[in-house]
Amino acid sequence: MIALGLEPEPLAFRVRPLADECFDSWIDRVGRAHDVTRSVLFRHLGIEPALAGQDLGRGRRGLDTTWHQAFDGLVERLAWAVQCEKERISATFLACEASALLPRGLRHYACARCWYEARRAGKPEFIRREWILRASWRCREHGLPGKVPGEPGGRLSLAQLARLVVLAERSLAVARPSQKTIRRNSAILAQLVRQSEWQRHRAIDHAYRDRIAANVFHFSADRIAMLALAHGRRGAAPRRFETLISQALPERPTPGGGSLADQKPPYRLQAAFRTKPRSHWIAPELLSLLCAYGALRARQGREAVLQAA
Known about the structure:
- Helix 5 packs antiparallel against helix 6 (158-175).
- By secondary structure, this protein is mostly helical.
- The chain has twelve helices and no strands.
- Among the domains are: 23-93, no CATH class; 104-247, no CATH class.
């Protein structure tokens, strides 16, 4: 645990960012290693504590210009505290639009098999930058839909992680995504995560990008299942969900607004009740059914006579 009131010094545990790890995942691992909150960690290192409440997923790009100087100091201080290059800290941020990221409270999706293998190998469990994007729903390495194993830190047992792997494999079999949609998804993720990698993809599916990059499936009870279905052969449910979410809510009524329905006249002033005229029209389907039934009965009658003879 960090002792408050002392001069800033490099941290006791040099928890450095892993390859392709997002900033929130890394800074949370640093805090857990020293048993402190993010704000206490920042205060100890001489970093503006208010930055602990900011969304730092996109780094400098996601902050107002008034925070840029404090953010530059954050990167420099953190690199000094864990004794690594500033570029390694900067690599944890994303350069995409804010609408492409999941809300801050939902950035805990991960591949169960990745975490299972990491636990068995004694390696840290972390969240990749790609997994905090709204368009992300499957692990590129294992091809499994990402589940929610919980916050990193070993809260789930090895058996629980193994069970999540089995559930992910079953959900993939139900969705049956096509290779074409998987390639589309990989291209969009490459564009959002690494611009240099995106240069290799010439064809841009604008309709797919506009729909998936900023999708609202996280409002669903099972975001991953909705995304998997949207990339498979059962896309009707995701389409209905998107239509429902896109519907505008009715405006809040204001005093004096709106209009009243017409008042129903008294019974003595109403027109006399008239019965509807009787119609002899029959639905064509019903008439065809009756004719078919009559022909069948006639055929059955002829067969009965032949059998009796």
